[in-house]
Amino acid sequence: MSGSHGRGCADCEALPEALPDAGFLHLAAPLSRTGERLRKLLRRSGLEFQEAESGVMTVRLPPQGLEKLALDLAGLLTAGEQLECPCLLSAERGCPGLAELLRTQPLSRVVGRVRGEWVRQLLAEQRLVTHFQPIVEARAPERVFAHECLVRGRERNGALVTPSEVQRAARAAGLLSQFDRAARIQAVRSAARRDLPGQVFVNVNPNAVHDPATCLRTTLDVAAEAGIDHERMVFEITETEDVADATHLAKLLAFCRHHGFRVALDDLGAGFSSVRLLRRLKPDFVKLDRELIEGIDRDAFKARFVEKLLDVARSLAIPIIAEGVETAQEWRWVEQHEVDYVQGFYVAAPDDPPRPPRRSSSQRPV
After folding, report:
1. DSSP label of 150
2. Domains of the chain, with CATH numbers?
3. What's the CA gap between 281 and 264, in Å, rounded?
4. What is the mean pLDDT of residues 235-262?
5. Cα 175 to Cα 86: distance, rounded to the nearest angstrom
């Protein structure tokens, strides 16, 4: 199908500027006891501050003072207090104007931005890399059906940062949409460069896609430029347990399918990835949550639960992928229960270039 048309998402594409080195932090404590703890901390820190009759505290930040204060506040206040404490960074001491008030945000976001500055730099410097993990046919494990693109961060010294670590920091810093977009683009371009056979699974976090038509536009354009047929790409919808609105998921799947892509629902068995949601969305693939697969050969409750999920998926004619298979016993269980495809360290670890699957038809676990 042809590429998308229209503008992309400005919020997904633009990185915020670095936090100011100095200036003023305006804080409004939600509770009197929170305010008293803030005063004690500020006096103990030797920071100059003033408090208005409204209860808003204005703290003068010395050069490089924001990072230390933010970390001190994170250690002092609970996550709930940080979330309920509105604040504003400003270059001026006086009462903020309307334009600045529009930039008011929870203290938790400022703390996240300080802690996640390394993520902003990582994205600005395009230090993302893609590793590929094969997904093989359970009945013929030497046959690679697809590769999942797994994006990692790379520190300036070359060390790799796990995707979960980058994603946690990006979410806390309000950079989840920017990270998810950059990861998708990196995955598509890397897969095209490697000229991978079979299907290509690219992760999409639905919490980072506010409007599919704009947020996914760049990804569609990059896929077209890279020459990857839409029929070969599978958008793997991740973290479905954190999505509060199933209708949003349905719209995301409908958009992907409209443009000729297939869709996999990740982490089946967790949160929203329930039997009810599976019946409503009818994805092209379902992936069993790795926590369900771990030790399934020794856990009768897990086994019964997964068997019911498999029955539902089969009744809907949806192929099943077991991810996180790490032992011969787990492999034997999913093979005996006629799971369609297998992914995990027992097959091959993620790498670039991708590793061939370790198992062959003559090396099946016994």
Report:
1. E
2. 13-115 (3.30.70), 120-342 (3.20.20.450)
3. 10
4. 86
5. 19
Residue pair 144/129 in contact (Cβ under 8 Å)? The answer is no
Q: Around Cβ 40, how many Cβ atoms within 10 Å?
A: 11
CA distance 285 to 263: 7
Around Cβ 315, how many Cβ atoms within 10 Å? 10
pLDDT in tens, 279-295: 888 999 999 988 999 99
Please count the CA atoms within 13 angstroms of the CA of 308 that sit on its side-chain side: 10
Residue found by looking up tokens 């009462």 in the block: 95
Q: What is the pTM of this model?
A: 0.88
What SS3 state is found at 286?
strand
**Residues 42 and 96 sit within 8 Å (Cβ to Cβ):** no
Helix axes 107-115, 163-172, angle to 10 degrees: 140
SS3 333: helix
pLDDT of residue 30: 83
Phi then psi for residue 245, to 5 deg, are -130, 110
Single-letter code of the amino acid located at 50: Q
Q: At what angle do helices 107-115 and 65-76 cross, to 10 degrees?
A: 120
pLDDT tens column, 9-29: 877 888 998 888 889 999 998
Contact by Cβ (8 Å): 120, 173? yes
Instruction: Report long-range pairs for 95-101 (Cβ below 8 Å, ≥24 apart).
Output: 96/26
pLDDT of residue 185 exceeding 90:
yes
Q: What is the mean pLDDT of the chain?
A: 89
CA gap 273, 269 in Å, rounded: 6
pLDDT at 2 over 50: no
- 309 forms beta bridges with none
